[in-house]
Amino acid sequence: MTKSMDFWVNKKVLVTGGSGFLGSFVVKKLKERGCKDIFVPRSKDYDLVEMEACKRLYKDAKPDIVIHLAARVGGIGANRSNPGKFFYDNLMMGVQMVEVGRQMGIGKFVAIGTICAYPKFTPVPFKEEDLWNGYPEETNAPYGLAKKMLLVQAQAYRQQYGFNAIYLLPVNLYGPGDNFDLESSHVIPALIRKCVEARRSQVEVKAKVETPNPALSTPQSQPSITVWGTGNPTREFLYVEDAAEGILLAAERYNKPEPVNLGAGFEISTKNLVALIARLTDFKGNIIWDASRPDGQPRRRLDTSKAEKEFGFKAQINLEEGLKRTIQWYPNSAMR
Questions:
Q1: Are residues 203 and 213 in contact, defined by beta-carbon separation less than 8 angstroms?
Q2: 183 falls in which pLDDT band (50, 70, 90)?
Q3: From its phi and psi, is residue 62 left (phi > 0), alpha (psi between -120 and 50) or beta?
Q4: Are the C-beta atoms of residues 310 and 255 closer than 8 Å to each other?
């Protein structure tokens, strides 16, 4: 850690999206590494879709390093409802932040892509060199392609201007502080919320109808939750604190044009994921699969060997432990 702390001494770091889910962990780890000059813009003050706001942000922050985490994100439902907005906002934020960074002559730009940039039928495990071998899964394509343009821009700017931009491809993240809004959340927080609330409602109803005479009690129907799709697709998940560590290790040690995956190197079917979350939340009700809803990409699992080789990153928190921490956080801190 001493070497890591030395890297951040006297550096001014701009973290877009630094008050968000992933960003809050990145900022925390930066402080732990001894970084004292961290600028975290708020969207109400800097709308990064607008070029003038990007210019003003760079003028105010005067950064040496930019970690660009700000993004318009959501699950399958949110992507289907907002394909144009997800494409435009993510494209403009990324393109303009890189361009103004080049103009300002910053030392390094860390661009965060997405697993949604990979082709729909990428061979498993996903290798970085497969990134251009097909079109992304349709429901996530506008978002995935907008973020993918950051890689094109980073490589072009490195070639023409010598601009040090790196590009990371994190798999789906989860953990404490995630978005639990069912309209826009990803699969893990959505499932946790559904299971916790279904179990809570069952307990509350049971408490209301309990009487001293069991013969007078009304039998209670089992609660149920509805899950999108068939349960067959597989997914990989990376605990948010691990992701933050990977990003900072790359910022410290990686300076090449090729993209790098950030993941945990496993896959689990949606069906098994639901069963695991149900067990960990003590939900014993019915699970209804809505097969009329899209499954998304058939399989997802990253080849994570390059991140370990290039900058020593390897995920530390396994899925069950990460889920336990997230579930423990949810009832006390998230929306009811």
A1: no
A2: confident
A3: left
A4: no
Residue 274's alpha-carbon distances to 139, 229, 232, 293, in angstroms, are 21, 12, 11, 16
Of 162-176, 207-221, 278-292, 316-330, least confident by mean pLDDT is: 207-221
Q: Which residues are catalytic?
A: 143
pLDDT in tens, 15-59: 999 999 999 999 999 999 999 999 999 999 999 999 999 999 999
Q: Give the type of residue at 127.
A: K
Q: Which residues lie closer than 8 Å to 146 by C-beta, 6 or more apart? A: 86, 87, 88, 90, 91, 94
In the block, tokens 């990977």 appear at: 246
- What's the CA gap between 271 and 75, in Å, rounded? 17
Query: Hey, what amino acid is at 241?
Result: E
Length of the chain counted residue by residue: 336
| pTM for this predicted structure | 0.90
Q: Say how far apart CA 54 and CA 60 lie, in whole Å.
A: 10
Region of residue 193 (left: phi > 0; alpha: psi -120 to 50; beta: else): alpha
